[in-house]
Amino acid sequence: MPGNSFGELFRVTTAGVSHGPGYLLIIDGCPPGLPLSVDDLLPDLRRRRPGQSKIVTQRKEEDLPEIWSGVFEGATDGTSIGILFRNSDQRSGDYGDIKDKYRPGHADFTFDAKYGRRDHRGGGRSSARETVCRVAAGAVAKKLLAQVGVNVLGYVKQVGDVIADIADPTMVTLEQVEATPVRCPDPAAAARMISLIEEVRKDQDSIGGVCELRATGVPAGLGEPVFDKLKADLAKGLLSLPAVTAFEYGAGFAVASMRGSQNNDAFIRKEERPRQIGTATNRHGGMLGGISSGEPIVCRVAVKPTSSLPRPQPTVTRTAEPTEIITRGRHDPCLLPRFVPMGEAMLALVLVDHWLRWRAQCG
To answer: Could you tell me the CATH number of the domain that includes residue 195?
Structure first.
């Protein structure tokens, strides 16, 4: 099955399914000498872990990584980093009803259409549980990026019709994000988001929203001018995450109603920059011509409502017979709180890969 790897120089490969023995992560291309241990991976893994609060899925997984290779005497040795995650809280019996039925919004039908067969237990290869590998890889990427002054952070910008008031994404701190279970740095909006999530959960429904991501300290020059634009790889990485349906950066879709004179960011002198040049505003989201400008990278993704619902939904069987389905099991009423570290991971993986490529090409 192709498409299990991501990145050029910093390359991540994952394997595993949600109701199998576990997941395997391979990281190729990490430079030697990076101090690394299980403790470096745990903070982000705990942020992604299910069962954190009543507004997320209650599946219990410890998500304890086992580093099998690539780390010697507390530091990376330049070879492939192998990390194993064992599944422990499996209830495959919850999925017996969907063996011959297609869940609306899921990949059941498309897997059958492509392969002619599928693992009906949970989401199989398309399960969001696969992101445990990405979050671990992202933690390694974040640590490498921190050595060159790059900081990556995400937060919940919107749940349903509740939108957070965040004037400057670069001023948001991790402490503000982690202060509420919904991971929104606006306390008033966070309270309304939590109430909305609890409301839809009681209605046996789900709700979507928006995650905003930003990276500060990104040097100018990352990315390529044509097919490997930084924005294109960010879109690919973030859209590869489960449930993501849209991507925008900078002013995003708002540029459709602007004039050029409104959209352009004026260049100004900035003494703290290596070339002493920056922009007065950042409607370009830190990328011009597919290459980083030195301004903060700011992007957003829309995350759809959880497709698995504990209420009857119309569907068909594999033989096209009309029927109903109730998706049992333990599912998030809103994916956003646990999505934040997933989005951060993909942003970090794209940036570290392009940083290594830039360093290799331009010195």
So the answer is: 3.60.150.10
